[in-house]
Design brief:
Belongs to the UPF0162 family. The protein is of the alpha+beta class. It is built from 13 helices and six strands. It folds into two domains: about 80 residues, no CATH class; about 200 residues, no CATH class. About 30% of the residues are buried.
């Protein structure tokens, strides 16, 4: 469809006939993101609440379809890029965000650590350096006041507010570390996501790091005791690094719980659809 045809369809969105509207809506949705600018232009010039509400819903459906496609593509071809996976989830809540702000902040954290990084540092010294840059200088901390707030799962919001949940803080920590060639990876520990320093990929982690508690160092015995309290086995699933796909799935599950807690069934259902994409 050309611009004239699209504008003609948009002008009919005020039609009270639901069946006609559904047909018009579907035609616009199939056009994809290209029609969003024209829809927004129509919304701004409209004084009809019904038309405005319908336009908002159509834009959201188009953007949500785009996110589903991007997540599916990430799962198939780009799952080694954890930051990109987190940015796709971020687009669900912030579709018009300039993502360069996130990328620049991550780069700045990396640069601040790199300036102080020395070749002969021990693993523990490297982690202490990262702890200082991320938690003391930048000011990241665990959001203990609003632990289940959905914003804790969106990387843009976490970097802006400097507060997050265990998995979002662990993701930022591991992304910065890996960009510095420091082998720190996510550990899918039940109830509390953490990270680990992997000196040798064929051996257990050298030690673990609790990003939610400002980089507290944990040993293998601490993890075993925690699993024992939960009556869980000492499985590699809980003690060895997990995939980026497993991390993104856990971020989505956290969001489902968060939206359930605040009573938002529509967003809960949409996030559940995103989770199904990578579970399948």
């Amino acid at each position: 469809m050309n611009e004239k045809e699209i504008k003609a369809i948009i002008s009919l969105l005020e039609d009270p006939d639901t069946e006609i509207f559904n047909q018009l809506e579907q035609r616009l949705i199939t056009c994809g993101p290209e029609v969003i600018a024209l829809l927004e232009e129509s919304w701004e010039s409209s004084f009809d609440p019904l038309s405005q509400s319908r336009i908002e819903n159509i834009i959201h459906k188009i953007q949500f379809d785009q996110i589903k496609s991007e997540l599916q593509l990430w799962d198939l071809k780009n799952s080694e890029d954890l930051l990109e996976g987190l940015l796709i989830i971020n687009r669900y809540q912030y579709p018009n965000l300039d993502e360069n702000n996130v990328i620049l902040t991550i780069s700045e954290l990396k640069r601040n650590a790199w300036f102080q990084l020395m070749y002969d540092m021990s693993p523990m010294e490297k982690v202490k350096l990262l702890n200082n840059v991320l938690f003391r200088e930048f000011g990241l901390s665990g959001n203990t006041t609003n632990y289940h707030d959905p914003q804790n799962s969106f990387i843009h919001s976490v970097l802006e507010s400097k507060k997050g949940n265990p998995i979002s803080l662990s993701c930022i920590y591991s992304i910065v570390a890996q960009q510095l060639d420091i082998p720190i990876y996510g550990i899918n520990l039940p109830k509390h996501f953490i990270i680990a320093y992997m000196e040798d990929t064929d051996k257990p982690p050298l030690f673990y790091v609790n990003a939610f508690n400002r980089g507290q160092i944990m040993q293998q015995n601490d993890i075993y005791s925690f699993l024992k309290q939960l009556n869980l086995p000492l499985s590699e699933e809980y003690t060895m690094p997990c995939t980026n796909k497993a991390i993104i799935k856990r971020v989505l599950r956290n969001l489902i719980t968060a939206y359930e807690n605040i009573g938002n069934p529509q967003k809960k259902e949409e996030i559940d659809l995103l989770l199904k994409i990578i579970e399948d």
